[in-house]
User: Fold these one by one.
Assistant:
Number 1:
Amino acid sequence: MHELSIATSIVETVREHVAGAGGGEVRRVTLRIGRLAGVHEDALRFSFDIVREGTPLAAAELAVIDVPVRIWCPTCEIEVELPSVQSFACPACGTRSGDIRAGRELDLESIELAESVEEAKP
Ligand SMILES: [Zn+2]
């Protein structure tokens, strides 16, 4: 399963970060996933729940930022957001374009440690 290796990689990366920060529990992990990344969020969450057992991420919330697909329209000369991935054409003028500028992301956006949240309180 594709998502299992992604989840394993995320957990490993976060564990290394937590160890580097002196340890602690992770409160939230935020990912940015493009609609063209080929990741099924449900499958990823399922895999994440399995691989995080016994790690500092055991109680972490997994937040996902959905990144829409953006292409460059050579006619309008702007970057446009596609309403769906069924058609790679500018929604304004209909020009087809394969010049993808966003939507393939699979990034670790942020890691929130339980301690850092406590420290952030006034
Ligand atoms: Zn256009």
Note: The CA atoms of residues 34 and 67 lie 4 Å apart.
Number 2:
Amino acid sequence: MEKKTKKKYSETEIKQALTFIEIFETKDEIDCKGCGYDTCRDFAAAMLEGKETPSKCVELSKKVIEKLKRKEKELRESLFLNQEILDAVPAPIIYEDKEGHAIGCNKAYEEIAGIKRFDIKDKKLTEYSDNKAYNELNDRLNASLLKNPGKQVVETVVKYPGGDDITIELHKAVFADRAGRPAGFVSILFDITERVMQSRETAIAKDTAELSVSLLKKMPSGFVIVDDSLKIIESNSAFARLMGDDILAISEINPGLKGADLKSVFSDHQLFTALMQSGEDSYTKDIVHNGKKIKITIFTIEKNKTAGAILLDLSMPEVKNEEVRKRAEEVIRENLDTVQKIAYLLGENASKTENVLSSVIRLLSDNDKK
Ligand code: SF4
């Protein structure tokens, strides 16, 4: 039997009550009778009378269920998209709750941890990782971040499932819930193994290069390295001596004559310009400078950018001897290679030249002994 209302209500009151069941226009009044009333207006009057509540309107319930379904679908799609984005990040990422239980991770983390995300869910790190040092570090960081929310970056070593050690930079931060309270931690692990190795190699190579340069500076032959504007990058005291007393005096104030203009030091400076412009590897010529006969070998260090030279004073008594002279030329040839490598290092700070430079040092030591 259909339900009835006793009271009469104004059009405004009825329309207002209809909005409670999301009926805003006349066309939405479908009068389906699902609520037990003949019309939606009768149901609205019953609500005004306090006899019914909006939840009794079956149409409204359907709408609410539809909305919930849509929201759930959107949420699923959003979560899927978030996971896709996380999986696209090459660095391992894991997020945990405040107690350190894993909530989720990305593919890169699965690879580094050797475990699937479903198998780490709700587990603490200690339940699936046997890296004691890393686990303790993680606990310490969590405790510290809860006290001082923000971000922490630490360097540490972890193992790949295969057993290879890698050096990582762990970036860990707190994430907050909707109310702004700390809700958990997110960790990103950056593999810096190669960077660490490179910086070690660079430091060794730099030290070796500096050592090699100090050996070059002790060579009896003069050597000089210049850039494309003929500014001196490095030279030794034998070079300053060959350039004359004034230059030698300057080199005592400015060792290596760094930054000095070769044009004001060496009258045959155009030989350097010619070599750099030609792009040739090397050029040897006998010249006379300050009344001394000099064999100069100019060589390219970096094409069109840097050049070096070894200068041999042919008037030196020991060089006058033909046999000794040949030997000296041999030394120049060997040193040429050495100087090229060292000069390259000085300019480029190359990282993987340790072995080359070790042999360079040996080569120089051998030459000195000879
Ligand atoms: S169930 Fe809702 S839509 Fe159907 S008649 Fe009742 S009030 Fe109107």
Note: Residues 348-370 have pLDDT under 50 and may be disordered.
Number 3:
Amino acid sequence: MSQLHLFDLEPTFTERSVREVTFQGKMGLPIHRWYRLTPSFSPKLAWDIADYFKLSQRDLVLDPFSGVGTVSLCMKYRGIPSCSIEINPYLCFVSSVKTRTYRKIADIESCLTAFAEVFARRHSKLPRPHDAQAWLNENRDFIPPIHNAERWWSPGNLMQLVCLRRLALEFEADPEHRDLIRMGILGILVPVSNAKHNHVSLTFADKPLPTVDLRGILAKKLSQIVDDLQAVQNLPRAEATIHFGNSKHVASILPRRPKVSAVITSPPYPNRFSYARETRPHLFFFDFIADARAVGELETDAIGGTWGKATSVLAKRIEPGNSLIAQLISPYTDAINGSGELMANYVTKYFNDIFAHAGEVAKVCKKRCRLAYVIGNSKFYNQPLPSDEILAGIFEHHGFALERIDRMRKRQSKRGLHEAVVFMHRQ
Ligand SMILES: C[S@@+](CC[C@H](N)C(=O)[O-])C[C@H]1O[C@@H](n2cnc3c(N)ncnc32)[C@H](O)[C@@H]1O
């Protein structure tokens, strides 16, 4: 006999194309395209889940791992209220700026054009690229305090960026316009850097990028921002609230009412990707973070953090937080432990954190609610880790029933890896 399901099972989320799951589905879409975060998901996925859940303006959607605000942005322009949480201050800024409601686009256009013109005037006074290093030596105080900035940008590009940074810090404008200017600048930092998106994480190219003319690149980015705001002017819209915080404490971050009727989200996958590491140029460019120590703390507090200080935390033995976690993960961590204790500790910390998070989600959800968690599995020393099933087991403990797990697509990076959406509900 076929299994009885509580909800309509269509559409299926299996066999999806790369564009329907990953960041690639957003790079041609207004506002979504302002900044590329490779491990972020396709707006189409958020839309399809909203359809599947039959969400309306009476719902409240939570995304506790906002990233670049994909879920909130999609919900906003479908008229569905949402709230999101993000621990990384730069990504929180991106989510907030993208989901804000802007009026008087003509004023925004004048301000952004004026900024580009002032930059062009200052730019014309900069020395030629081969004198950039001497100029940088004289302007050391304005170089963003990222470790080894010269590795990120060749001298001619860094000189222009420093000039741009100085202007952005001094430029007087309405705070919302100023944020849009900063968003535009932050959106071009990687394209003009020596780093490349050849892998999930940024890597440095073999050859540094030669000097490019930042005036044109900036003007194009700022006009893209204006065009995109114009494109969404007549769409219906709902409130989207972005909170800066740690989703291990969801209940103390969100207001007590209204409660959440659906969760659509994607936590970090347990694959050692570091969001703090990936966003270092941006974190430091406009002082979203004070110093390297603070980056280490961010990484340690984040779920799945692994880089810098977080690695030393993982070097000490980490025990499963309770017997359920032990039961769910020990078949895998025991096998991983044979090859490396650090990785076994990493997996244990990851699921201890997911357990804390799930308990908090249970507090903020309505009695009846539906959940969609997008997550990828991993492999450690060739040992597969079924993250989707373990996550479902943890949420079941907190009172959510598993509806189904749809494995959406195979990942190309390694055999046996996939991304899944875990559908759960509470009745
Ligand atoms: C897979 S990404 C989410 C991408 C998002 N769905 C999008 O399309 O932009 C996971 C996000 O969770 C954030 N994060 C990690 N630990 C967190 C925590 N404890 N609380 C809140 N956010 C956290 C990371 O900084 C990252 O932005």
Note: The chain has a mean pLDDT of 93.
